[in-house]
Design a protein that fits this description.
Blueprint (H helix, E strand, L loop, with lengths): L6 H12 L5 E2 H10 L6 H13 L3 E6 L2 E6 L3 H17 L3 H10 L5 H13 L4
Antiparallel strand pairs: 1-3, 2-3
Length: about 130
């Protein structure tokens, strides 16, 4: 299983995953964090990026005096792994328990409920 990300690390990964470019520059991350109301000190960002590289989430390539960062883990792969971990931990592996809680806890909009219902009625495809 992939190592869990801290909230700050996840915020950085979201910016990288959302970036339409294949590689992400340090300056782009600084600007995006500031634009999201989460400005970061340069040294703090360097440490967070270093952790993401050592955890295997990012690749770093030195281009002159700057680094370009490339995601090594897809967002969907991270989401799937974390969802599985959450279901195992909180619901003892029961997806039904999670879905029941979402419905019983009135946590779904009517539109989300209808979409989920249609997915369930459609069965597994593949």
């Amino acid at each position: 299983m992939q190592q869990k990300l801290s909230d700050a690390e996840l915020e950085i990964m979201k910016i990288i995953w959302e970036n339409p470019e294949e590689n992400t520059l340090f300056s782009y991350l600084m600007d995006e964090l500031a634009a999201r109301g989460k400005p970061c000190q340069k040294n703090t960002l360097i440490v967070l990026l270093s952790r993401l590289v050592s955890k295997g989430y990012l690749g770093a390539t030195k281009i002159g005096r700057r680094n370009e960062y490339t995601p090594l883990v897809l967002e969907t792969a991270y989401q799937s792994a974390q969802t599985r971990h959450f279901i195992d931990k909180v619901y003892e592996g029961s997806v039904k328990g999670l879905v029941t809680n979402l419905i019983a806890g009135d946590m779904l909009t009517e539109e989300e409920y209808e979409e989920l219902k249609a997915l369930l009625e459609g069965g597994r495809r593949g």
